């Protein structure tokens, strides 16, 4: 890997700033100052910036899966139903799903072996933004939309305000995009039920920076570098003190 890319991956500076540091002679590789921008470094080289040793973060896997209907969001199912583990090759390592989609919900799901990132992204104190496309019974009117904006009342307390966008509406059914931050059990279904528009189909279109796009049901892809950087940025924002208060 080129030295400036290595420094950027290690979180020292942007690639451009890293180039400046190299040109100024602030960077040593295996004890020697290196000023050539194209210098290649490998994981076992020792790299220092301003006398401080620098290392790459551990390599993790980030997989974007389109979970189909009738698949459990678990690695094993005692009742023998299909699980997300059946959809990804074993050689991807010990990746596990981040959060949960119901058996009867399909859509985008992150799987990773980065336990720390998974923990932060699923912590109830910090809700990643998730968008679902719901087909619901009946015509969703402006009063319903207001209820979602105010926070629909659920059995255990009001849900946080949700954004809704009416995609299509008719007298018998409406198609709605709903964006929520929380991850309560069967939350979207229960929110629509509370407004007397039960859900007949639910697909998650977006999980934070990850979009379903044209990924077919049951298929997966590696997250792009840009998506991984966005996930990390979300997680580090969540870990800053008072992050949850600032979001309210
Ligand atoms: N809300 C639900 O009701 N189900 C899901 O699977 C996800 C969110």
Explained architecture:
The protein has two domains: 3-54, Structural Genomics Hypothetical 15.5 Kd Protein In mrcA-pckA Intergenic Region, Chain A, CATH 3.10.290; 62-220, Pseudouridine synthase (2-Layer Sandwich), CATH 3.30.2350. Helix content is 25%, strand content 27%. The protein is built from seven helices and 15 strands. The protein has helices spanning 3-9, 15-23, 115-122, 142-150, 187-194, 225-239, 243-247, and strands at residues 27-29, 32-33, 47-49, 52-54, 62-67, 96-97, 106-112, 130-137, 153-154, 157-158, 163-169, 173-180, 199-207, 210-211, 220-222. It is elongated and about 70 Å long. It starts with a helix and ends with a helix.
How many strands? 15
Second-tier CATH architecture of the largest domain: 2-Layer Sandwich
Can you tell me the overall shape?
A: elongated
Under the CATH scheme, which class of the largest domain?
Alpha Beta
Strand content: 25-35%
Order of helices and strands, N to C?
HHEEEEEEEHEHEEEEHEEEHH
How many domains make up the 3D coordinates? Answer: 2
Largest sheet: 9 strands, mixed
List segments where confidence is low: pLDDT < 50 over at least 5 consecutive residues.
Answer: none
Q: Examine the coordinates and then state which fold CATH places here, giving the name of the CATH topology of the largest domain.
A: Pseudouridine synthase
The small molecules bound here are: uracil
CATH homologous superfamily assignment of the largest domain: Pseudouridine synthase
For this structure, the quaternary state is: single chain
| Cα separation of the termini | 41 Å
Number of helices: 7
> Could you say which structural class the secondary elements and strand pairing correspond to?
alpha+beta
Helical content (DSSP H or I, runs of 4+): 10-25%
